[in-house]
Amino acid sequence: MGNILIVTELKDGAIREASYELVSFAQKIGGDIKSLVIGSGVAGEAESFAKKGGGTVYVADDASLANYNVDGYAAAIRAGIDASGADVVLISNTPSGWDVAPRIAAALDVAFVSDAFDFQDGAYIRRIFNGKLDARVKVEGDKAIVSVQPGALAAFDGSSEGSTEALTVDTSGARAKFIEVKVAESKGVDLTKASVIVSGGRGVGDPEKFTEVIQPLADALGGAMGASRPVVDAGWLPHQYQVGSSGQVVTPKLYIACGISGAIQHLVGMKGSNFIIAINKDPDAPIFEVAQLGVVADLFEIVPALTAAVAAAKG
Amino acid sequence: MKILVCLKQVPHQDARLDIDGAGTWIKEDGIKFEINSYDTFALEEALRIKDAGEAEVVVVSIGPDRVTQALRTALGMGADRAVHVKDTEIDGSDALVISKLLAAVGKEESPDLVLMGLMSDDGNTAAVAPMLAELMGIPSATAVMSVEASGDGYKVERELEGGALEVVELPKPCLIAVQSGLNQVRYASLKGIMAAKKKPIDVKGAGDLGLAGNVGAGAAKTHIEKIFAPVKGEGAEIVEGSTDEVVTQLVAKIKELGLL
Ligand SMILES: Cc1cc2nc3c(=O)[nH]c(=O)nc-3n(C[C@H](O)[C@H](O)[C@H](O)COP(=O)(O)OP(=O)(O)OC[C@H]3O[C@@H](n4cnc5c(N)ncnc54)[C@H](O)[C@@H]3O)c2cc1C
Ligand SMILES: Nc1ncnc2c1ncn2[C@@H]1O[C@H](COP(=O)(O)O)[C@@H](O)[C@H]1O
């Protein structure tokens, strides 16, 4: 299938797990794999990636690339595409990946496939409608920029022969300016310590219902209350209750999801729980795929009755 | 100061999703539509900038007749005028073609700021914002959680994983794609809805934007071959019965887990 360029990503000075998943994705497509490492003082990481599936690794090493900047990174990726002669470019669908990848496709006037989680029989597979349906996407011609869902494939952990090659990038035209990264401050509720979490989603319907229906079950089980993002977006609960990729990642002994559909960004925050019970009136809700026990019903029927039964069982 | 807000009309979040005869999209007849959730936050942000100073807010949407409803809602909330790009030729367009159409509108309007959503709730491509910025030749930021005027442009906070924020400065003109939840979205007031009836909606076809023959499935570089229900794994064991029976089984399980 020609040349594939993997655009790696660094986090805290090391190449992320997601970049090794891109190696697996590239192997699935099939082709000559080359890679790109972008950053400042990244020669060592590039060397090691070259030995772990990266093939020829182009290194865009420049002080101006120390932090993510859309214009600088776009310039580096385009230089990487030129140097590698890549047909297919793989980028992880992370906050920096989704920020820059479509720009490259528009600049080069080539196909863009977003957040693919698999490649089967010549087509990319991706989720649509927030996880409720999947689509097979075909690309016209052989050139494509593809962003790949982190966690979709196992990371490649074999070894390979590879080498590095320095790349010069002109970042002088950058207009967007990186100022700083503010780390999330943890205030109040630390869900990561709770042994039971009862979470409510958009299906709970309004803020009062969290106090009347969700919190009492959490209390009865001696646990904490959690929520999906739309609940926090609507101002029903503060951000510290949010479970998911942009909230907290939790692993309680028991997670009860009420009125939560199970979009990937929520799942990554709770699928590591020891046991998951899902209550949802839609039998096709993706949450039932990660749950061990499911109840297809109105949460307002089940949750109050469960709260009462738990209280009774405690005597 | 002119702000262009791009909004898409999408199937209502609670709409039934049945696959159409061709197997390439959902059946759209008989379901309710609404403004894409992310775009309501973008519009609200534009209206706040307008409320705080002086700005003309122009909304643009590409889609069939039903989109008029979304544009009327946006005008009712306080947008000043609307552009409706409507053309049967556009059917089958991918994100890049949509971006080219929006870029043509952007060229006509030359806004100081483009506000839009991070992602559409139906296609979930999250591609149009960076593409449009590239085609308009302006800087951009996605997943933005706060927008603040700063010097000659804006200082924005981009959401990273786990709730960390990346602070970025963008000179004007620029494009900002917002993440959900950056503000609380207003409702259209009755007065606003009445006033909206007099506000103009400018309808344009692909030809008016210089893109006749360059839109639709023929121009798209990606095609949806098939859509389908996600492949099911083992899935959950479904507890059935009356509420009492279900609850009894759940309690038994919770006991077995040692949590009761
Ligand atoms: C970059 C990014 C980051 C994100 N980060 C997060 C994150 O950290 N956490 C997160 O949760 N989301 C996150 N999201 C949003 C995510 O994509 C989904 O939109 C969100 O998780 C959906 O929340 P929900 O399941 O509550 O709502 P919906 O998807 O609307 O689901 C509501 C569910 O409730 C059910 N329901 C309705 N009424 C009842 C009833 N009476 N009884 C039983 N069931 C009922 C419905 O069947 C439906 O399945 C993120 C998105 C993006 C793009
Ligand atoms: N048909 C459209 N008309 C107007 N704006 C759109 C359209 N499609 C997408 N957009 C904008 O692009 C954003 C991202 O959408 P997408 O790339 O399709 O996920 C949306 O939130 C809208 O702001």
SSE topology sketch:
The complex is a heterodimer of chains A (about 325) and B (about 260).
Chain A lengths: L2 E5 L2 E2 L2 E2 L1 H13 L2 E8 L3 H12 L1 E6 L8 H15 L3 E5 L2 H14 L2 E10 L2 E6 L4 E7 L4 E5 L14 E4 L10 E6 L13 E5 L6 H14 L3 E4 L1 H5 L20 E5 L5 H7 L5 E5 L6 H4 L2 E4 L2 H16 L1
Parallel strand pairs in A: 1-4, 1-6, 4-5, 5-11, 6-10, 7-10, 13-14, 13-15, 15-16, 16-17
Antiparallel strand pairs in A: 2-3, 7-8, 8-9
Helix pairs in contact in A: 3-4, 5-9
Chain B lengths: L1 E5 L2 E3 L21 E3 L1 H16 L3 E7 L4 H11 L3 E5 L9 H15 L3 E5 L10 H9 L3 E11 L2 E7 L5 E7 L2 E5 L11 H7 L4 E4 L17 E7 L8 E2 L4 H14 L4
Parallel strand pairs in B: 1-4, 1-6, 4-5, 5-11, 6-10, 7-10
Antiparallel strand pairs in B: 2-3, 7-8, 8-9
Flavin-adenine dinucleotide sits at the interface of chains A and B.
Kindly describe this structure:
The complex is a heterodimer of chains A (315) and B (260). Chain A has 315 residues and is α/β, with parallel strands linked by helices. Chain A folds into two domains: 3-166, HUPs (Rossmann fold); 191-314, 3-Layer(aba) Sandwich (Rossmann fold). Chain A is built from nine helices and 17 strands. In chain A, strand 2 and strand 3 form a beta hairpin. With 260 residues, chain B is α/β, with parallel strands linked by helices. Chain B is built from six helices and 13 strands. In chain B, strands 9-8-7-10-6-1-4-5-11 form a nine-stranded mixed sheet, with helices on both faces. Chain B has a two-stranded antiparallel sheet with strand order 2-3. At the A-B interface, helix 4, strand 7, strand 8, strand 9 and strand 12 of A face helix 3, helix 4, strand 7, strand 8 and strand 9 of B. The complex binds flavin-adenine dinucleotide and adenosine monophosphate. Adenosine monophosphate binds next to helix 1, strand 4, helix 3, strand 6 and helix 4 of chain B. The site of adenosine monophosphate has 22 residues of chain B, from helix 1, strand 4, helix 3, strand 6 and helix 4.
